[in-house]
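As the next step, I wrote out a protein sequence along with its fold in token form, included below for the reader:
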Amino acid sequence: MVGIKKLEVSISIDGKEVELGELVQDKKKIYFKYASNFIASGLEISPFKMKLSNAILSAETSPFNGLFGVFNDSLPDGWGQLLLDRTLISRGTLLNQITPLDRLAYVGSKGMGALIYKPAIVSEYEYVNDIALDTIANNMNQVIAGASNEVLEELFNLGGSSGGARPKIFVGYHPITGDLIHGVENLPEGYEHWIIKFPAAIDPIDIANIEYAYYKMALDAGIEMNPCKLFSGKSGKQYFGTKRFDRENGKRLHVHSASGLLHDNFRYSSLDYGHLMDAAFTLEKHTKAYEKILRLAAFNVYAHNKDDHSKNVAFIMDAVGNWKFAPAYDLTFSHTSHGMHSTMVAGESSNPGKKQLQELADEFSVKNFNILLESVQNVVFDWTKYASTYGVLSETTRLIQKVINQKKD
């Protein structure tokens, strides 16, 4: 089914589905109108670009093909988009016939965050609660190589609404028994919503261990993250997993990426960490927000996480409209195709360091900058300890340490 012209949008708030409004496509233009009852709630789900209004709203074509950023956040990118496109092609659908509303209908109620789209295009796939991580990894490699359509349906239902470049699946994980089940929305008692990542074609074989070591470093550097762990396949191969922060006690939470919030095309971003600091303060209404972003910036600079784009930063809204900076995610050793940080640091993206971080601290009056910076540096410069503890290969450890040592300023 393609050519959808209208979608009803709702949002899950404190476990209850509430009508948000309606998306309508007229030719190449997409319009949105809030439901009157939702306007009365006073909740601003996208306070910078889609404020509450009785008017019929429309966004510019760029950067999200006519969608407001809050809806674009629901769409898969990277791996999820690849799966959706391959699935559509396997069903005989031409991709140039697919509209953004069609893609949101495929997301339906399975997306990240709290937004729900109806009518949803529902798969008839039958879940089987037998998650063999090694088999899934092999199936993903087949899809990446373009060699198989047989496993598309399973992989699409496991993680077709996910973001990010690396293959991943949504699962239910029982922290006591260790059992994994397919990530259905309503999990049995005792299960938690988790994401498990798999290596991309260009990743080193110990990518899961690298990211887990970075997770431990980030925690010790004072950065908030949701629990993470290494899952093992029957072969002994390990896979990185993280507990989802858009699900809490069985309830969905409204999450908005910095990309969607600020209408930033994260692939060709013009954002600076200063923009993120300003946005965080506006949302949290507390100067501690400056410190959170600056600490993350320092970690990314010294730990060589150059893939620090605006989709890898997010904010969470609670049931009464209060916002907070989301736990950090996707922190790992990374490069970019252009060799620069995806987000600038005081205007510098090629080789930012203490000078630029200090400029941000001065601009936003972060008084304890030296203490903050030292706490991050002390952890990151001790990379070898984390790498050896969490199974990073010795050659990988040396290569990363060599790069980190170049940041000692």
User: Anything to note?
Assistant: Residues 248-405 form one domain.
